[in-house]
Inverse folding.
């Protein structure tokens, strides 16, 4: 049985009496321990899909329909108290800009402990030990010192590692990573991608990766879905989609990637 099944997911935004269909009848599944990537240019609807899965879109202006089946329940119909326990517990998120994801007036330790105490049975000294261990697992040295730090005292890469620790502290089955490396410099991007891959393998973690960067997707994904104008136009094994695309829009994205790679290539002399 699939970990997550999305059937006919649609998202419509209404503003000033006009409606826009941002997501139109999207279908896909995610298996336990699998990395599925949704790619597409800005405005293609991929982030709306990610937020709609656990009803994080504001209603109104968003109207969400379809079915999102997780643990045999449709999350689009789940009571809000049950959904709050799933968010951050069984399904966690990591977003593009860690600086805006972290609370600037709370220490990293306070925010990590909040996640642990809400979604696990760890309390007191046990929770603090678990918090330090998660910081070590995501590659943050001097974990005890980091627990005392405020977000502004950490670099962007360190902030994103702290966000990963918070997202994974409850050992979710599914991590939704929405452009998790876009705000970071190239060197740190590679480090975070390697960390995500290692954590996915060690935790048997399923990941829904949202990205516009095919190079990022190529490094991580088992399967790739390509979105254009709110529609999932192609879905298949990453090696197949990225080398033998079946849809003209996917070919367009691959041509853009090839063109960017040529521009980045250093010239002789």
């Amino acid at each position: 049985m699939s970990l997550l099944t999305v059937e006919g997911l649609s998202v419509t935004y209404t503003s000033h009496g006009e409606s826009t269909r941002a997501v139109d009848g999207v279908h896909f599944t995610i298996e336990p321990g699998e990395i599925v990537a949704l790619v597409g240019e800005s405005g293609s609807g991929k982030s709306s899909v990610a937020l709609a899965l656990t009803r994080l879109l504001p209603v109104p202006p968003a109207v969400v329909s379809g079915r999102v089946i997780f643990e045999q329940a449709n999350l689009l119909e789940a009571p809000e108290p049950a959904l709050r326990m799933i968010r951050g517990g069984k399904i966690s998120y990591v977003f593009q800009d860690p600086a805006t994801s972290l609370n600037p007036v709370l220490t990293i330790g306070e925010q990590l402990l909040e996640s642990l105490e809400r979604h696990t049975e760890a309390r007191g000294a046990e929770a603090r030990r678990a918090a330090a261990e998660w910081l070590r697992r995501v590659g943050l040295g001097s974990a005890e010192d980091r627990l005392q730090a405020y977000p502004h005292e950490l670099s962007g890469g360190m902030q994103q590692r702290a966000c990963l620790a918070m997202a994974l502290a409850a050992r979710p089955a599914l991590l939704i990573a929405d452009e998790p490396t876009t705000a970071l410099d190239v060197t740190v991007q590679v480090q975070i991608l390697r960390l995500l891959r290692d954590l996915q393998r060690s935790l048997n973690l399923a990941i829904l990766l949202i990205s516009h960067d095919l190079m990022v997707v190529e490094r991580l994904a088992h399967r790739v879905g390509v979105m254009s104008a709110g529609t999932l136009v192609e879905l298949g094994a990453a090696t197949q989609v990225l080398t033998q695309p079946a849809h003209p829009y996917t070919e367009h994205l691959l041509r853009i990637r090839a063109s960017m790679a040529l521009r980045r290539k250093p010239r002789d002399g």
